[in-house]
Specification:
Layout (H helix, E strand, L loop, with lengths): L24 E2 L11 E7 L11 E11 L5 E11 L9 E5 L23 H8 L4 E5 L15 H17 L10 E7 L1 H16 L4 E8 L5 H8 L6 H13 L11 H10 L4 H8 L4 H4 L8 H9 L11 E6 L7 H13 L4 E6 L4 H7 L1 H12 L9
Parallel strand pairs: 5-6, 5-7, 7-8, 8-9, 9-10
Antiparallel strand pairs: 1-2, 2-3, 3-4, 4-6
Length: 384
Amino acid sequence: MRFRSTALAAITALTLSAWIPAATAQADEGSATRPGDIVASAPSAFHPLPGQPTNTKAWKIHYRSTTADGAPNTVSGTVIVPQDGRTGPRPLVTYAVGTVGMGDSCAPSNNLPYGTAMEANLIQQLTLRGWAVVVTDYEGLGTPGVHTYTVGPSAGHAMLDAARAATRLPEAGLPADTPVGIMGYSQGGQAAGWAAELQGSYAPELKVKGTATGGVPADLMKVAAFNNGSYGSGLIFMAAAGQDAAFPELKLDSYLNPAGRILVSGMKENCVAIDAIAGSFKRISDLTTRDPLAQPDWQARLNQSRLGRTAPAAPVYQYHALGDELIPYGVGRQLRSDWCAKGANLEFDTIWLGEHVSGVITHSLEAGNWLADRFAGRPTHPNC
């Protein structure tokens, strides 16, 4: 069913710390050998606001996935299934949230049960359509280790394996041939873009019908240059910490001065509201003894996360705000050009009014309606 109502109220900008009991249904970890296999699961809950009912069942899961360099890892997430009496198959959306921070308390699975997750109202728009949703926590967010923030291949693997895990969770009742949609904005848009590019080779068995991705930081070098010294500069240092977590040979600490070490250490423990304020209006030169982004090894790793080299196998709806103050509109347009040049089935939509954060809210219904058309088998309207 298509939604024709207006967008829901703006979501809260502050993620509160929360704790959730450890998973109680343990699988034999040695038997969880395939990407997407369940390592552990436990009943959870889904509340967009504290105590708000949703007529859903939810489970926190730990599942096998793959790092950017191809090694096995374990990622956590949340599976949400509407309890609407539907007995036949239902679509599944694998959903990636925008930046929430790097501390484990920021993980969606630690906030969805308490109504403190930042995009829960947007996720509820999907469950109200009767769709199941699985929300990845990403590598290192809610699991041991530092969150690999902005490492595109890792995030793409985590999204695709979350969809696999949801279909392998018996309680969810989702068969292996469940139609799948991919959805995310900002950091989630990068993850969704990578999931779309990787799906044909990494998870070809998934019945992906389309990807809705917005505000995509497709080129991290350009995004860093744009934010250096601005109020979005904290994202640069979070991204540096995330890349260093994935690739320790980068040795971020060797580039940081004492103030930089203090800032980055704090970012690894906190959520985005604190991290963004602490890192705002700082230049890379303020916190380093030399610029890591000028080094060939750093440039190579950041370019490893650049999108646009592979056409997604399934159709894509990409949207970007003209006035985006964090992810330049030109970066989104370049991704569109790159995907179109590769032959992608792509529909691009410019958000003419608004900025980065408002874009995910005002276009959530359009993105959901686009996915609904894909699940219904309606024709696409590419505009390359």
